[in-house]
Design goal:
Layout (H helix, E strand, L loop, with lengths): L5 E3 H6 L2 E6 L1 H4 L6 E12 L3 E14 L6 E16 L19 E4 L3 E3 L1 H11 L36 H10 L2
Parallel strand pairs: 5-6
Antiparallel strand pairs: 1-7, 2-3, 3-4, 4-5
This protein binds zinc ion (ZN) (2 copies).
Length: about 170
């Protein structure tokens, strides 16, 4: 069977679908722990090779509000098109031009390496500022207590918050 998220031309010839497991190690993603990853694709072969399907995985993330670690499951659409041949942008010095066509990848030689494509899809799926839950209350800006575990005794915002205090002092300058 196919291994290492790499499909040789020989294998591609025989395949019209593909599924494989992955984790952070197999896709070379050091920054975010990924477990239970699975890619399931159908492969349409013609002038282009179209890889269409889903990736699912569990990511261990740090909440942007409260700073606690939590696990989140993802199930995302996956779409990539591969063209056999030389990338016409390869001779151009500006790599920016290639970004217009991120979904379309040129490949040569022995086959298609899905590793980078999966890594990219995983990174894209994960929000920039993940939340451990929709209503995470975050930490108190004064004492730093995680408010998901209960209130602290600091003066509450709203009414006489720091902004009002600040503006008041400013006015009396
Ligand atoms: Zn949180
Ligand atoms: Zn507090």
């Amino acid at each position: 069977m196919v291994k290492d998220l790499f499909l040789t031309l020989e294998e591609l010839k025989e395949l019209d679908s593909y599924s494989e497991d992955f984790d952070s190690e197999t896709i070379g993603l050091d920054e975010i722990p990924i477990t239970g990853g699975r890619i399931t694709l159908t492969i349409t072969k013609g002038e282009l090779f179209i890889f269409q399907g889903r990736i699912s995985f569990t990511a261990r993330l740090v909440c942007a509000r409260c700073g606690e670690e939590f696990e989140q499951e993802f199930d995302e659409e996956f779409h990539r098109e591969y063209i056999f041949g030389r990338d016409p942008y390869d001779s151009l010095p500006q790599v920016e031009l290639r970004r217009q066509d991120l979904d379309r990848v040129y490949f040569q030689d022995i086959g298609i390496d899905l590793k980078g494509a999966i890594r990219e899809a995983v990174i894209t799926a994960i929000p920039m500022a993940p939340h451990c839950r929709e209503d995470c209350r975050g930490v108190c800006p004064i004492c730093g207590k995680n408010l998901n575990y209960g209130d602290c005794s600091c003066p509450k915002e709203g009414g006489g918050g720091w902004l009002e205090e600040f503006l008041k002092n400013k006015r009396s300058d």
